[in-house]
């Protein structure tokens, strides 16, 4: 029976192999994915992995074949380091027919990173930049015979090491800190910089074919890219949109004459001038087979709707269709006319984006205007969704993360410069969700070479990726690097001894190469030289500002790990804060080893994955400043308690800092808050708000309020006054009238101590309004009340005059809280441990969406501080479970919370016993 089953499986595999390796032919111009079966093996033939498909990577293939365990488990980041130091070969069989096609090209959209490419006995070429598309002419080899397609990969670790030898001026830093457990010299190669390890990520020096391979057949010209510049103009009193379209045509790899017709359409939108629909082209491609054709279109302004960022309006998109048709198609009767036709469709949005840097009394402003509306940028920083490039384009996971950003009221994400140029899917979703993109080029935290061969591949990398991404309306600004200006100015890597030489390299790479290449391919957007930087002021200071972190200019990155992050008085902000944040630990149940590890073993693993050179000290310090800190690492409950407190502390720090930045919109001109970081690449201590795999930390749940379009901010300022600020990002109506209520509560009782109400507060659109500054401490002292025993709960309501007719109940707008002392200082008589019970009110699961939704009631016998709900580890088959509220203050006996999970097959029935509860109260009463 077993032999028969083996034979059956062999026959199926043989048939699949034959189908996937059959002749690849077409009678049309086409880009055909080569979904072939590949064999992967090391150079010594010790490991031979069959039947792999692309996109692919060596780590993924070894995991799937169970040669190694999961890279993300236990200590496998170190145990599998040999993989990245080994050479590997990919091979498959390819049979194709060139027939009458003029051009047949084998195109690799992403090879990671160093490979020699051969077809049969012919060496086609070599690759050295994972961000570059490589094309090879294979027409003569598409003869119907079967040839072996072979990519021989060289270890990126070894290649980087070799490139570092005998350099007169070392490219620093030469190695990451030891705590990273990483590899050296990643700055010498054009590969995802974080793949050699980062302070939030593991070392995974990947190799493989991380993007599709395609055979391109055509006989005239191929439309490779379309870019647009869309602007508003008024002509003779007529308001219109101008669309400057650039069409990038290709004719193989060499110069050729092209003669034909381009046709343009915006689906559903008429052009003001019908003659714009076509453009005759008669020209010659350059020596690389490339030709740029420019054409202008105009449409009436009222014929289209504007595209807006999330929270400001709709994200209306239109399809721009461009068709190339060779002149020969209509001149003579051809057997296969479609081989001389090429088509491409992109989605565009009608919007304007301006980065305003006008003069202010104390420097320059720095903010984005979209459709002439100033936008307070709310959001986060995006790192690759996986440390392995072939997994980073997982469309479902990328969609989950971007929807999570949208649902938290974000309107901007910063694509960080140590990662990847993201997938087309990523940018399409950003367009649809209204997420503006601040886009770094892929250079981060380092000096880089500037020799001609390096600059040439960088120039090609920038050219290709900017052209591919450029048409997306979500992209707001480019920055040539992350933190390299400030690293050079502040001597992060001991560059001062050779400052002039490193400065020259910096200017050669960014000012003379990257900047003009971006501008040449995208005249639609501003290009910043770095982040953080002083924007226009840095240009006046010969590209390296005296203080790139000057809060009066450009953007700043702000981290301070030992001042009390819960204290609002320490934050000033800048014009635009593009990085800030604090670490926490992933949930206890997210550590797959937690159930089998003893406390000491789990401590060792967590410390191994803590890549910050400061270790866990900032987390512990911040908890100790504000909360009761667990003292015994050997106790059974140590890590669950510490993890909970770390997430609460992270949420409080980011909440406090973000709300100060929002409140200082007018006073300090602060117009952006992008915290570090949205996502993770493994389960480890980090700054993320979403754990790897999709579990929300407390911070991400809180962000729905922190970033809410209408919000009531309250904090104790540097004058020890309770400052209350109404925040509105909404545009309509022009003015709202708010009623604001402050309720003073004692920690140990549901009974309200005092209620203070202010009515008819005038809150204009798209700005902030000071509600009050109040000496709350003097007020309490007059009544003989101790601040440590009390907190303030705040509520905002729409004033009834502005409410809906016939709706007598006040319409709530926002709620918030303000702590008046550290939680650890609550006096003994107010330290009450409530009884907390959970009951399931209803549970529904959709078999169509595999989404289960559970309504829970949380009941408490006394006020509960920062109620933390978690599913037990036994529910591990449920994915991406999120509570609508978590880490909340409960000063009412009953509260309703929604739980949603992805439950494949709707197999789980969640009950009350499946949910654990923690509160700060239980730690205070010990």
Can I get a quick summary?
The chain is an alpha+beta fold and 926 residues long. The chain is 21% helix and 34% strand. Among the domains are: 31-215, Galactose-binding domain-like (Jelly Rolls, Sandwich); 220-349, Immunoglobulins (Immunoglobulin-like); 710-830, Immunoglobulin-like, CATH 2.60.40.10; 836-925, Immunoglobulin-like, CATH 2.60.40.10.
Structural notes for this entry:
- By secondary structure, the protein is α+β, with helices and mostly antiparallel strands.
- Among the domains are: 31-215, Jelly Rolls (Sandwich), CATH 2.60.120; 220-349, Immunoglobulins (Immunoglobulin-like, Sandwich), CATH 2.60.40.10; 710-830, Immunoglobulin-like (Sandwich); 836-925, Immunoglobulin-like (Sandwich), CATH 2.60.40.
- It is 21% helix and 34% strand.
- The chain is built from 19 helices and 48 strands.
- The chain has a six-stranded antiparallel β-sheet with strand order 3-2-4-10-7-8. A six-stranded parallel β-sheet has the order 31-30-29-28-27-34.
- Strand 35 (710-716) and strand 36 form a beta hairpin.
- Helix 8 runs parallel beside helix 9, helix 15 crosses helix 16 (638-663) and helix 16 (638-663) packs parallel to helix 17 (698-706).
- The chain starts with a helix and ends with a helix.
- Residues 1-27 have low confidence and may be disordered.
Layout of SSEs?
Elements: H1 2-20, E1 30-33, E2 38-42, E3 48-52, H2 58-64, H3 76-79, H4 81-84, E4 88-97, E5 103-108, E6 111-112, E7 114-119, E8 122-127, E9 134-137, E10 143-154, H5 156-163, E11 196-198, E12 201-203, E13 208-209, E14 213-218, E15 222-235, E16 238-250, E17 257-266, E18 278-284, E19 290-300, E20 318-326, H6 328-331, E21 341-348, E22 353-356, E23 359-360, E24 363-364, E25 367-370, E26 373-375, E27 377-382, H7 389-392, H8 395-407, E28 412-415, H9 424-433, E29 436-440, H10 452-469, E30 475-479, H11 484-489, H12 499-521, E31 526-528, H13 536-540, E32 555-558, E33 576-580, H14 599-609, H15 617-626, H16 638-663, E34 672-675, H17 698-706, E35 710-716, E36 722-728, E37 735-746, E38 752-764, E39 767-774, H18 776-782, E40 790-798, E41 811-819, E42 836-846, E43 851-860, E44 864-871, E45 879-883, E46 888-890, E47 894-902, E48 915-918, H19 920-924
Parallel strand pairs: 27-28, 27-34, 28-29, 29-30, 30-31, 32-33
Antiparallel strand pairs: 1-14, 2-3, 2-4, 4-10, 5-9, 5-14, 6-13, 7-8, 7-10, 11-12, 15-16, 16-19, 17-18, 17-20, 20-21, 22-25, 23-24, 25-26, 35-36, 36-39, 37-38, 37-40, 40-41, 42-43, 43-47, 44-46, 44-48, 45-47
Helix pairs in contact: 8-9, 10-12, 15-16, 16-17
Signal peptide: 1-26
Keywords: Glycoprotein, Glycosidase, Hydrolase, Lysosome, Signal
Domain Beta-mannosidase-like galactose-binding: 38-211
